[in-house]
Backbone:
């Protein structure tokens, strides 16, 4: 989570005065479970990348490799684990 | 030489609105405000103002349109009363939270039920926690003067908050009185040009109004709103003084009448202050040391000024024209009594409810309130904090 500001630092009226700043809002802390990748079982099919509603799967498209999850934005919905055809490649574990 | 006209309160405010020439007015008619907006609509149809006049299907829509127009960067005004104000409720809070300097005239009228179109203060008192500045007017002249000042106060960069300018329904709104008006140019120069701070129409600098604001920031935003409204007392005072230099009619947060050497005083809002002056003059003739404290600015509540004005007194009668059901006294009583808790000396305070649903109040009622207060002080004990004026048992 980014540093929280005190009330004196805020824009009057609670306005957002800069465009395109949704990425600064790290929604990853909404998570109660997180996906864990087992690289040995991953078949790099990109199903998780295609299904992820938060664009939180990091891939190397040129190399054709699934690399990791972006935990800043992953909300832990588990869709990647459900969509994964390689059993055991993605496991949902409780967030600690 | 000032120009003098015969205006009722509604006409006086409509004329002020014409001179202010706001960018947008969105309003819905409701008695006793209708006359004001009708007159303004005539100015629009005669081409005497440049305002975009939006006729809406409800007061909720009126305030919503005002919020949109103000966020877009316009100078925006509206008017309402009673149940119309109640229907705006949700949007009142949003206008204040977004720091939009909308100016709204409210003709104070009793809230239903039962249905009543006459004056009491239930409507704006109900909205006292919405984050708006509340200025009360004693007569049509003050309604006119307050409306012009409200623009300058609301738009001050240190304020940027919406303001309600109130006048007592029918008693002021429909009674024709002598009103001194300023020249159009004088009003224009006094209020100056308006520049919205974060206008939505500035396409090169896109902004978001009213984003979701949860447990991580909502509290901080409310704290900054508390600061904003508390900080506007000096601005209201400064604008009142500047208006005095322009018009010869000086305005302060409060106005004392024969308070200097007084031992007992009434505290009141709106047109009742005129009635109270009569009562005080009459009691003074009988040798009683009595005075009046008129609350012009009710929100923000000018705590320091109230303490300074009332602390030296022996007894105070606070007149409330609205009820806070189940509360300990009316809204004005609660506020005044609370302010005096830390005062260097604490006068005895009695709350008198009066005038609900437009019931007339007479100088004799106010004399009675002052006499009762004196009796309580002399007895050294308050047996009844809450009393009523002009009520049949």
Residues:
């Amino acid at each position: 989570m980014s540093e929280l500001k005190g009330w004196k630092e805020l824009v009057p009226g609670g306005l957002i005065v800069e465009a395109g700043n949704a990425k600064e809002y790290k929604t990853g802390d909404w998570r109660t479970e997180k996906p864990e990748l087992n690289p040995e079982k991953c078949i790099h099919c990109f199903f998780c990348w295609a299904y992820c509603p938060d664009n939180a799967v990091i891939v190397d498209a040129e190399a054709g490799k699934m690399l990791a999850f972006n935990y800043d934005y992953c909300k832990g919905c588990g869709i990647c684990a459900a969509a994964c055809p390689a059993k055991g490649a993605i496991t949902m574990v409780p967030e600690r | 030489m000032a120009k003098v006209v015969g205006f009722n309160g509604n006409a006086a405010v409509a004329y002020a609105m014409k001179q202010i020439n706001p960018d947008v007015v969105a309003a819905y008619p409701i008695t006793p405000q209708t006359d004001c907006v009708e007159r303004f609509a005539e100015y629009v149809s005669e081409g005497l103002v440049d305002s975009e006049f939006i006729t809406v299907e409800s007061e909720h829509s009126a305030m919503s349109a005002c919020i949109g127009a103000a966020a877009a960067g316009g100078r925006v005004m509206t008017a309402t009363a009673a149940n119309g104000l109640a229907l705006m409720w949700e949007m009142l809070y949003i206008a204040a939270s977004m720091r939009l300097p909308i100016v709204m005239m409210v003709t104070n009228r009793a809230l239903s039920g039962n249905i009543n179109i006459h004056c009491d203060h239930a409507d704006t008192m109900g909205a006292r926690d919405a984050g708006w500045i509340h200025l009360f007017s004693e007569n049509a002249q003050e309604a006119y003067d307050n409306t012009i000042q409200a623009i300058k106060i609301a738009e001050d960069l240190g304020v940027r908050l919406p303001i309600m300018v109130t006048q007592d329904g029918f008693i002021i709104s429909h009674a024709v009185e002598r009103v001194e008006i300023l020249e159009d140019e004088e009003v224009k120069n006094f209020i100056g040009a308006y520049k919205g701070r974060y206008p939505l129409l500035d396409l090169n600098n896109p902004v978001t109004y009213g984003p979701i604001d949860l447990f991580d920031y909502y509290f901080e935003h409310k704290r900054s709103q508390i600061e904003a409204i508390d900080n506007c007392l000096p601005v209201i005072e400064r604008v009142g003084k500047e208006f005095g230099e322009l018009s010869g009619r000086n305005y302060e947060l409060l106005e004392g009448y024969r308070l200097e050497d007084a031992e007992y005083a009434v505290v009141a809002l709106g047109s009742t202050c005129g009635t109270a002056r009569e009562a005080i003059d009459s009691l003074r003739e009988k040798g009683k040391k009595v005075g009046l404290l008129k609350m012009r600015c009710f929100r923000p509540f000018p705590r320091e000024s109230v303490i300074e004005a009332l602390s030296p007194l022996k007894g105070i009668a606070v007149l409330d024209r609205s009820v806070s059901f189940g509360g300990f006294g009316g809204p004005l009583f609660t506020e005044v009594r609370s302010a005096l808790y830390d005062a260097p000396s604490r006068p005895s305070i009695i709350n008198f409810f009066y005038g609900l649903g437009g019931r007339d109040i007479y100088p004799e009622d106010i004399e009675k309130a002052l006499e009762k207060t004196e009796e309580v002080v002399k007895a050294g004990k308050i047996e009844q904090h809450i009393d009523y004026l002009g009520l049949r048992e």
